[in-house]
Amino acid sequence: MNTPATNKLPTTWLILGERAGDNAQVLALGRALGWPCTVKQIRYDDSCTIDFKDRGASLTGVDLAASTPLAGPWPDVLIAIGRRSVPIARWIRAQSPSPILHVHLGRPRVELELFDLVVTTPQYNLPEAENVIEITLPFVSVDAEALGRAAGSWHDRFAQVPRPWTAVMVGGPTPQLAFGPAEAERMLAELLAFRAKAGASLLVTTSPRTPVEVSEALSSGLQGLGPSGHLFFPFARDSDNPYLAMLALADSFVISVDSASMVAEAATRQKPIHLFHLPKIPPKVKPGLKSALSRNWRLRRKARQDADLPADPLDKLYDFWTRRGKARPRRDIDQLENRLIGMGIAQPLSGSGPTEGEKVTAAFAQLGREREEVLRRINALWADRLSMQ
User: Fold this and answer.
1) Rg, Å, the chain Cα set
2) Considering the domain 12-141+370-387 in this protein, what is its CATH number?
3) Residue 388 exposed, middle or buried by CB count within 10 Å (0-12, 13-18, 19+)
4) Per-residue pLDDT tens for 260-287?
5) Cα 257–186–271 angle (5° rounding)?
6) pLDDT by residue (tens digit) across 354-369?
7) Which stretches does DSSP call E strand in 244-304?
8) CB contact at 8 A, 256 and 119
9) Thinking of the domain 144-279+341-367, which architecture would CATH place it in?
10) One fold for both 12-141+370-387 and 144-279+341-367?
């Protein structure tokens, strides 16, 4: 991507937290821009009880001793993700004598006008705004050399089972999605039906978030396939991880929908993706009239969106309050799942035939155009900033 005509490359800070998937997105965008980047690793003090939205522009709740020092010279650009980094990014901007361009990923849960650009994805349900751009999948970066090394290291182990190989990437529960023994049994049944139809060997790996009971249920159930039908690699922090090798070598993928990052990384391989659906966990109902009105308003807005109805005055007011950080649509992974299936990027593990080849090709091309548009917007913002200096 070309930089502004002045050829002045902005110094860029990448604000990392404690979630590997979030950090990967920030690093990927930094690499894609090609600007000089400095990583700032932030560690949080979990004993701090002040809500992130109430911390303002401050380092409240940051474990300063364990974090990368934050001191001048201050950057030209900040890239951060999620609600936890917002107070820190605001504090950094307040220290600098010159304006800092702030690009935020995901859903910040505060006033959207605080950011120069918010890059979001469908599950967050952010309303349209001049400084918001929605892309289908989050930014990821898969290093070709790392894939090659992993493929060389793992190929002989995978070769214990015949091709084609389907990589099964198992996540875990989230505050919105259930993934327990019942879901493990359903996943097992759908995997066995998939294998019977596709004739593929299953390369199965779990993640740090996978509950022990889910891992054990899958391992036990897959034994019926025999040693020539599958390989099972439970996640362990002290052992080699086959994840990159699966990305490099698999002929198709099965991914639980809890991880948009895993789906995005698999999509870079442009091979068939099958999504394992997870049921939603009903939200906790807060007592009181104010909470009831807010909940019903949110549910009404969501129902009208799902029905593809045009926004009425109440919908527009809800969107206005969302832009102000006062209303917070609930994260809805179904939005992302339906988008991916509708585009042809993925299909449900539970059934349906393959998507037409031309539709799939066009869908992967669309993902590329979305990434390029994000890079174009950021470069344009930097060019505008330079023109005012």
Assistant:
1) 22
2) 3.40.50
3) exposed
4) 999 999 999 999 999 999 999 988 888 8
5) 45
6) 666 788 889 999 999 9
7) 252-256, 273-276
8) no
9) 3-Layer(aba) Sandwich (3.40)
10) yes
